[in-house]
Description:
Layout: H1 2-5, E1 11-14, H2 28-38, E2 43-46, E3 75-77, H3 94-106, E4 112-114, H4 125-141, E5 157-159, E6 164-173, E7 176-185, E8 194-198, E9 202-207, E10 213-214, E11 217-218, E12 223-226, E13 235-241, H5 277-285, H6 287-295
Parallel strand pairs: 1-2, 3-4
Antiparallel strand pairs: 5-8, 6-7, 7-13, 8-12, 9-10, 9-13, 11-12
Helix pairs in contact: 3-5
Amino acid sequence: EIVEGDGPFHMVWLDAGWVREPHEPIGTAEIASTLRAHGPGLMIVHREVHGPFENYRTPEQEIPDAAPDHPWAPCMALQREWCALSRDEASEPVEEVTGNLVRIVARGGSYLLGIGPDATGHMPDSVRDSLERIGTWMTACGEGVYGTRVPQDPPQVESLDGAISWYLTEKPQEAGTALYAFGLPAEGRELDATSLRVDRPVRAVTLLGSDGRSLALDESSGRIEVPASPTQGAVGLRIELACPSRTRTRGGPGAPRRSTPSAHGAGSGRGEGASRGRGAASAARHASSRRASRAR
C-alpha cells in the first residue's frame, strides 16, 4: 500500500534485524520483490541480517577500522539518542562529527547523521547550531568529500611532529586526479601550525577554506608548512602531485584500499588513518544503550 500509493522511493530499510528465518519468517524475499517491482532503482538495507536483498550496510554508532569491501554508510546520532530527550539537550561536539566524517569518507563510506526533535516536535537549539557549523566546514572543505573515493595509490603523508593524523581522499577529474588530505589533531592537541612531508614529488598545495591560499613547499624534501587551521575540527589540503600514481590497486579503478593499523593508533596518511579516534570511540561506547532504547 505504501509503495503503490506514495513515492517514488529511493531507499528502504528492513530495520527489524531480529526478524529472520527460521524463527520469524515474514517473507523477506517477497517484500523485497514487491518493493523493487515498484522501484527498480530502489536501494535496500537489510540491517543486521545481510544477504541477497541488501545494496549496502549501515553499521550503527561505529566506524570500521579499515575500508570495508562493500558499500556502507554508518548511522550515527548527533544527540545521545535518535531523538531529543529535552528541549535543551546538547549535541555531540562539532569536532567529533567532522572527525567522524573525515574517517568515514577516507574509508569509502557515506555519513548518515541522525537528528530528531523532542516529544513536542521542537528541535533543540544545539542541533541547529551544530548543523550550521558543520555546514560551514562543508562549504570550506566539501570539495574533498563530495564525489571522492578511497585513493588507489596514495602517497605517504605524515606530520613531522606527530600532532596531526592525515586521512586521504581523491577525486577523478578531466585533467588527472585531485588528492585531498584531512588532518585531525592528536588527543589533547589543537589544529596548530605544523609541518608535514609527502613521499612523492608535489607541485602545489592549497589550504581549503582560505580563499585558495598556496602553502610553502620545499620540493627537494617534500616538506610542507601548514598554518593553523582556518576550519574547525579538521584541516583540509588539496595536494597536486608532480607525477601520476605509480601503480594501480588490485581490483581495478574504484576498488577500496585497506589500511594497516598503526602500532600507536594514529593515522600515517597512507590512504587513511588506522585509528577510529576519540569521536568514533565515544560513539561506539553509547551503541548498546541506543540499541536498547530503540528496541523499547
